[in-house]
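Reopening this ticket.

The earlier resolution said the output was attached, but the attachment link was broken on my side. Pasting everything inline this time so it's all in one place.
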Amino acid sequence: MTSRERILAAIAHREPDRVPVDLGATPSSGISAIAYGNLKRHLGITRGDTRVYDVVQQLAQPEDEMLELFGIDVVDVGRAFNTEDAAWWPVTLGDGQAAFYPAWFHPEKQADGSFIARMKDGLDIAHMPARGTFFDQTYFPYLDDYPADFRDLPLEMGRVLWAAMAHSPWDHASDSGFWETLRAKALDLRASSDRALLLGIGCNLFEWGTFLRRMDNFLMDLVAEPEKVEALLDALMERHMAVLAKASCIPADRSAPCCLTSLRQGLT
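Inline output:
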């Protein structure tokens, strides 16, 4: 089987020729940038760069050589973005290793070696301690209470670190023509590889509740404020469904088939 066939067989609950393997196709299956550098050093690989594509969790984007070496079957569509060297700048990781951050990400280093990430208006949204391996959320939009309505939900979601410091391709979501570009890059990536492609959209419900209210508050809300929780989840669902609609039918050309329809034979 090709990697794509192997993944599709597993998804369809058919027995593949072997267990499919993933490394970094989602932020939940990625590898720490520090661990990635250590792995390369252990293998004696000195070529290439450690690019930290997910800056919140400080995850490395596995290079093609590593994908081949470990027989990886699936890749993230986001790797088709930020491919030029100008999209990155050099940094030093907590253990002293050299790496690269996306050009848009410039956290402020503090005197004690820690880092603060801010919005353009100066709002402090995330911290990473000295020698840390990920950023912690520091701004919770609804920390004090739920709003009377959720008209400000898009704005406040955009100030949560997971959205404000989004991994590729979502760091380009505000670009003009993003959905058309996403479709084109996905098709190009599919044509150049027999690996399965994955687009992580992240339409979380429980997690967004914790991102907005903070974990301790939201867990108590589930019991003490169920009506407010339900209202929030309804508002989140509306936003998520709107994003899914765009992702499943990217309007690059009204005469062209929907994105998921046209890619169904191999995108996933």
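Reporter confirms the inline version is readable. The chain has ten helices and eleven strands. The first helix runs from residue 3 to 11.
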